[in-house]
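Technical note accompanying the year-one report. For the benefit of new consortium partners, we illustrate the data format agreed upon in the data management plan: each record pairs a sequence with a structure-token string. No post-processing was applied to the example shown here.
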Amino acid sequence: MSAAASLDDLLAKDAITDVLARYSRTLDWLDEAGQASCYWPDAPIDYGFFKGSAADFVPVVMAIERRSARRWHLSDPPAIRLTGAAHAEVETYGLTAGARLTETGSYAGTMYGGRYLDAFEKREGEWRISRRDYVLDWSHPIPDQPVFDPNAAFPLPILEVLQGGHAKYRAI
């Protein structure tokens, strides 16, 4: 493989990795436009509870995320196989947690572990998800968490992101 071809492959893999990082960030910060920018609008999406196009999926997943007062998405480094200059197959393991306010005034939720089975396509110089199948491997309840007051013994700030446009969110 030539140096130029190796560089093109590295740049493609970096761009794909950036899309996957943006996917997690935009869900956590409730950035609907940023979330939509991860997919080609016509991309088929299958999450089990949703099967359809990315254009129809984004409003659904954002509504789900808005119901959680706390959400957290973490992705493992992706396994990327370039299948051409503008196509790639990608598998990424992910952890997701979300918590809602309970009747007792604390927050409880669920943690999920699964994998994203994606196809990526480069159109007009931009890589995006062109197909996504999500496979849920396991889920586990999260015990009650404190409200949004820092614990005096462990005084870390706790973010409350209930809508897009949070003051701490940075466009990257």
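Partners are asked to follow this layout when depositing records. The radius of gyration is 18 Å.
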